[in-house]
Each structure stands twice: as structure tokens, then as C-alpha cells.
Amino acid sequence: MQSSAHRPVLGVICCNRSIDGQAGQAVMTRYLNSALRYAEAAGLLIPALPELFHAREVAPRIDGLLLTGTPSNLDPKRYGAPAEDALGPFDPDRDEMTSELIAAMLDLGKPVFGICRGFQELNVAFGGTLRRDMAEHPDLLHHHAPDGVSFEEMFDHIHPVRLEEDGVLKRAYGRDALDIVSVHYQGVEALGAGLRVEARAPDGVIEAVSANVNGALVLAVQWHPEWKASENPQSQLFFQLLGRALRNEPLV
């Protein structure tokens, strides 16, 4: 492991959550365990409090940014969709904070990685839109476990994705397909301008994207590599790519 004195600092976005009726800032520990261990990085939690904690202040102090998954959905108004029938919960302060952070990091040429909601946030930040019909659309795979299962069973829901030719993930993994943990009801509708498709599910749904902005790598997946990463070398490699990006090292 790299000396702690020389480890890059990874910023990890928090969410607004209610804890025993009190407002709190939270991120699930599994994201931190996976990212900090396999990227060999130090971590800085970034509160989703845009009125008090400004993206342009924190971006120069971190070497990269991880946008995690969380139960909340993006406010549809962020991508120009009707909000009357939108399903929550919502976290408008996280929406605002991540939007500002993505812009600040890419302006500085620093990498941004996304998982699940983070993947969706990046697509919207690049001008894309989201679809909200995936749970009931007859032509799509089940991208989420059935309702009523336990938390563990929810993350046992797995399907394959095919890696796109000449993509970052295809080069890094050296294989055509991966089996991934899928836990999402929403996904990409229109792809954001400048994003490259990295992986698709068998039904054509976009499952991973990348970009290079001002020399900074953007890499995001709709699936959950943080889930039991200690048991899955495939997941560990995703976070190793994050570590290489933080250090400006070649990815492969």
C-alpha cells in the first residue's frame, strides 16, 4: 500500500438523510471501504449543503471526486422532465452540490467517477436526460430485484453487460462482458453530449459511460461495484482505475 503521506485525496459526496428524526449528512460505509482501499486513497466527505459548503472552495483541495449511489432520485426539473408524477425521495441539495462539484472538478481537469445515482448525475450534468419507466417497460430486462425482497437479496440481482469496443472498461478488463449488480429503476434516456457509451445491457440500456474533459477522466457505471468488493476482483478493478486516475497514471 502507498505511504499515507503521499496518498491522493478522494472527495466523496454525502446525502441528506434523516437519522432518528434529525437531519444528517451520510454516505454508506461500503462505498468508502471499497473506494479508499482499492484506489489507495485518503477520503474527504463533502456535505450536500450548497449554501454553506461551496464546490469552488473544495475542488482545489481534492484530487478526484466520487458520486455514490443513494435511495434518492434526481429532481426531474433538472433535466426538463415533468415532475408531477415523479417518484421520490428527492435530495435537492445533493442535486445542487453535485452539479456544482462536477463543473468545478472538470474545469480544474480532475477526475470524476460515478456509481448508480452518480452515473445519472453525470449524464444530466452533460445535458442528458433520464427515463423513469424501466420498472414497467415490457421490452426491458428487470434492472432491479422484485419488490419485497431483503436488502441482501436486492443486491443479489445480477445481469450481464457487454463492454463497448475501444472503451476504457474494455481495455482495462480485457474481456467482452461482465456480470454486474443491478439495483436501479431509472436510467439514461438521452445520452449527455460528449459522453461515450462504455457498456450496455442485453436490452440496449446504457450501463456505463466515460469522457475526457480538460485531461480529466469521467467514468461512471449504473451498477454497484462497491457491493462486496472484497469478494469480487472485477469490482476491485473499477476502484483501481479510480486510483490510477487520481495519480494521473496510465489506466492500462
Describe the model.
The protein has 7 helices and 13 strands. Helix 1 packs across helix 7. It has one domain (4-246): Rossmann fold (3-Layer(aba) Sandwich), CATH 3.40.50.880. A 9-stranded mixed beta sheet has the order 4-1-5-6-13-12-11-8-9, sandwiched between helices. With 252 residues, the chain is an alpha/beta fold.
Second-tier CATH architecture: 3-Layer(aba) Sandwich
Q: Any idea what the radius of gyration is?
A: 17 Å
Strand content: 15-25%
Helix count from the secondary structure assignment: 7
CATH superfamily: Class I glutamine amidotransferase (GATase) domain
Supply the number of structural domains: 1
Structural class: alpha/beta
Helix and strand sequence: EEEHEHEHEHEHEHEEEEEH
* Strand line-up of the largest beta sheet: 4-1-5-6-13-12-11-8-9
CATH topology: Rossmann fold
Q: Low-confidence segments, ≥5 residues, pLDDT <50?
A: none
So what's the overall shape? globular
Main beta sheet strand tally, sense and closure? 9 strands, mixed
Helix-residue proportion: 25-40%
CATH class: Alpha Beta
State the end-to-end CA separation.
19 Å
Beta strands, count: 13
Query: How confident is the prediction overall: mean pLDDT?
Result: 90
Please sum up the structure shown.
This protein is 25% helix and 25% strand.
Keywords:
single chain, 252 residues, alpha/beta, Rossmann fold, nine-stranded mixed sheet, two-stranded antiparallel sheet, 13 strands, 25% helix
